Amino acid sequence: MNRITIYSNQMNHDGDYDRLGWFDLDAAEHVLEEDSRWNGQNMVGVISGMQVNRAQLYRTKGGRWVENQDSRPEFNGPNVWRFLTDDEARTWMLKSGGREAEEALEKWFPETPDEEGPNLGGRPMVGPKVETRLDPDTLAKVDERAAKEGVSRAEMLRRLVIAGL
User: Fold this and answer.
1) What ranges do the domains of the chain cover?
2) How do residues 13-36 score in pLDDT, each as one tens digit?
3) Of 78, 71, 64, 54, which Cα lies nearest the Cα of 22?
């Protein structure tokens, strides 16, 4: 058994760190190592920012997410273990990127949409795109009527097709 004890990162009123729990590293599943990116000077981990080591993500036998950032080889820093929520683990995978992260997302969070982010504008989709050609005189009449009714050309064409049906 390789027991890892996880402590809070803030001191309590006694000047000590609270024990949050433990898990058996040997029974945990190694899910993912963070991907790296070029920061302009070096390749660094996208989660940790470390050059030498990479942050690791584990899933305990009990179903909890654990992150490890071991910066001892980097700059003789700490070896930090912390529990993550499901949302934090999902975000960790999304930020990490790479093929392994995509596979982990598919396994652990299959409901993750292919795209996510703010709506940057544009017209909401009304239906599938349909293209047609009109002679210039007919198109001018459509544009004239659209201007008279205060709608776009596309909206006018939709109205005329529906009226004709």
Assistant:
1) 3-108, 124-165
2) 888 888 999 999 999 999 999 888
3) 64
Residue type, 130: V
Find out whether 25 and 62 touch, Cβ atoms under 8 Å.
Answer: no
Kindly state the greatest CA–CA separation across the chain.
86
Contact 92, 67 (CB under 8 A): yes
Number of CB atoms found within 10 A of residue 66's CB: 21
Residue in the structure block whose two tokens are 């190694």:
30
Q: What is the pLDDT of residues 43-99, one digit of tens each?
A: 888 888 888 778 999 999 999 999 999 888 777 878 889 999 999 999 999 888 888
CA distances to 88, 114, 129 from 126, rounded to whole Å, are 36, 21, 9
CA distances from residue 153 to 10, 46, 132 in whole angstroms, order as listed: 62, 47, 13
CA pair distance 44, 34, nearest whole angstrom: 10
Q: Which amino acid is at 67?
A: E
**Strand, coil or helix: what is 119?**
coil
Distance from C-alpha of 17 to C-alpha of 135, rounded to nearest angstrom = 78
